[in-house]
Amino acid sequence: MTWIHACTVQQVPEDEGFRVPTTPPIAVFRVADEFFAVGDTCTHDEFSLAEGYLDGDVVECPLHMARFCLRTGKVLAPPAIIPLETYPVRRDGDDLFVDVPERTDDR
Amino acid sequence: MPENHARVVVVGASLAGVHTVRALRAREYAGEIVLVGAEPGAPNGVAVDRPALSKGYLTDPDPSAAPLLSPTELADLDVRLVRGPAVDLDLGTRHVVLHEGRLVEFSALVVATGSTPRTLPGVEPRQGVHTLRTLADATDIRAACTPGSRVVVIGGGFIGAETAWSARALGCTVTVVEMLPTMMQRGVGPVLGEAFTRRYAAAGIDLRMGTGVAGIEGSDRAEAVRLTDGSRLAADVVVLGLGTRPETSWLNGAGLDLRDGVVCDERLAARGARDVFAVGDVVRWRNPRYGEDTRVEHFTNAVETAGVVATNLTGGDQWHDALPYVWSDQLDSRLQVFGRIRPQDELHVVQGDLDGSFVAISGGDGALQGAVGFGAVRQLMPYRRLLASGASWDEARALADGGLKLPRFRSQVGL
Q1: 3-class SS at B403?
Q2: Does the beta carbon of B333 lie under 8 angstroms from any beta carbon of chain A?
């Protein structure tokens, strides 16, 4: 596992995610004062969840309405059946770091 | 009242049937599940995820389509997969009769037999004439659409338009014949239908709108399509995109109420039967949202009806009143429709324009009735919420004109 610099706190909007262009991409979300990093691509179809609808700690894919828990990656609504990857997030001042497996390349 | 069903039998292993099984286990149903699969061409009778079949599967250089249920998932779900088709139902003894006479007893039955493509009345099936429903159909169409071949698509709805676009991408010369005055009129109404007709014509597809088919020429192979306006279209490949009819023939005489589908109540329970439900394309249910009996041939409805029935089979009491949603890939972008677009309703483009990406809303009877986005996935979301909240037409228009916070279009919102 490698900690990579994902983005700054300011780059994460209130009501959507920030897409980190790693391979595969990661989405960083803000829920109140907490930050979560999950796989950016909906596990059902190709869509960036950073552009999804955020409701509390749940993100909904606007293509087919699959829902995922940002804390656990768990599927909360079909048609998705595969959970999202989740990644540890560390905050250092205004910088956010995400712990990614080796196969995920840095930008 | 929560009944303890010892064995749920789901007849049909496409999207609605498979999601019913998943939803039952997700709701901790611990009884036995038998899934009867009869998808033509599929070795184990389980269908593939169909949306790609009119899109990427036709055009990708290296297409793939996996069955909706993998052997691992089948094992995890603890489902007994049985090869169909089912040919009869005995409500008295509570048995499904399979094709070779085998009986499967149920304590609850879920009808998920889907639908079958409509064909042209009076036109005998022959070589070169295709419908598009199964993986085998898509494979045949893909093989037939060689560069330069002349393809005539009969029906300009969502599937017809997607297939025409795919055939064009494969280098075919494509004509679409549609009885209504515009493409996709049933799905998006006349104004947006007209806009898409213009754009498809500009993309080099020959469109014959407001025209019927008089016949297909050719003895053992289709050679041409004759139209009601007297013209004749030479054709190597004919694709019928005429919608589907619900697959209820196996239920004839079984005692269920069959009228263009299995007639069900708000909970998707079949009328006149006990512990029989229907899901997906085959259910005609009393939709509490509109107070009408409705049947829907779309992906999201299949998934949602599966969830409702699984809830109602595990002690819950849920109505199916979800906001209708359809998506389709048109031209090179994504079309999404929430709610309904009725011909009599007003239509307003609230963002973008009809030659590019756009969001349009429609209203009637004082209420916001529908919202359509094209290449505008994020921009459409606020309107979905407005629709779900039951907003009035005035409220929706005022918000669109002023206060509604809309995300801007990103540079290019493609697929």
Answers
A1: helix
A2: no
- Interface check A76 vs B, CB under 8 A: no
The CATH 3.50.50.60 domain(s) of chain B lie at 7-116+245-313, 119-242
The CATH superfamily of B7-116+245-313 is FAD/NAD(P)-binding domain (3.50.50.60)
B148 contact partners, CB below 8 Å, separation of at least 6: B171, B172, B173
Q: Rounded distance, CA B269 to CA B278, Å?
A: 7
Q: How far is A100 from chain B (nearest CA, A)?
A: 27
Longest pairwise C-alpha distance within chain A: 38
Residue B303 touches chain A, beta carbons under 8 Å = yes
Please state which CATH number belongs to domain A2-98. Answer: 2.102.10.10
- With beta carbons less than 8 A apart as the criterion, state whether A20 and A6 touch: yes
Q: How far is A70 from chain B (nearest CA, A)?
A: 19
Question: Is any Cβ of chain A less than 8 angstroms from the Cβ of B377?
Answer: yes
- Give me the CATH code for the B332-403 domain, please: 3.30.390.30
Domain spanning B119-242: which CATH class is it, in words? Answer: alpha beta
Closest Cα in chain B to A75: B26
Rounded to 10 degrees, what is the CA torsion of B212, B372, B201, B221? -40
What is the separation, in whole angstroms, between the first and last Cα of chain A?
16
Q: What is the pTM of this model?
A: 0.90
What are the residue ranges of CATH 3.30.390.30 in chain B?
A: 332-403
Distance from CA of B361 to the nearest CA of A (A): 17
User: How far B53 CA lies from chain A's nearest CA (Å)?
Assistant: 14
B22 touches chain A (CB under 8 A): yes
3-state secondary structure of B69: coil
Contacts with A74 from chain B: Cβ below 8 Å: none
Domain boundaries, chain A: 2-98
End-to-end CA, chain B? 45
Chain B residues close to A62, C-beta within 8 Å: 377-378, 380-381
A64 and chain B in contact, CB less than 8 A: yes
One pLDDT digit (tens) per residue for chain B, 415 residues: 345 799 999 999 999 999 999 999 999 999 999 999 999 989 889 999 999 899 889 999 888 888 999 999 999 999 999 999 999 999 999 999 999 899 999 999 999 999 999 998 877 778 999 999 999 999 999 999 999 999 999 999 999 999 999 999 999 999 999 999 999 999 999 999 999 999 999 999 999 999 999 999 998 899 999 999 999 999 999 999 999 999 999 999 999 999 999 999 999 999 999 999 999 999 999 999 999 999 999 999 999 999 999 999 999 999 999 999 999 999 989 999 999 999 999 999 999 999 999 999 999 999 999 999 999 988 898 898 889 889 999 989 988 887 565 555 443 333 3
Residue whose entry in the numeric block shows the structure tokens 């007209």: B194
Decide if the complex's ipTM is over 0.90.
no
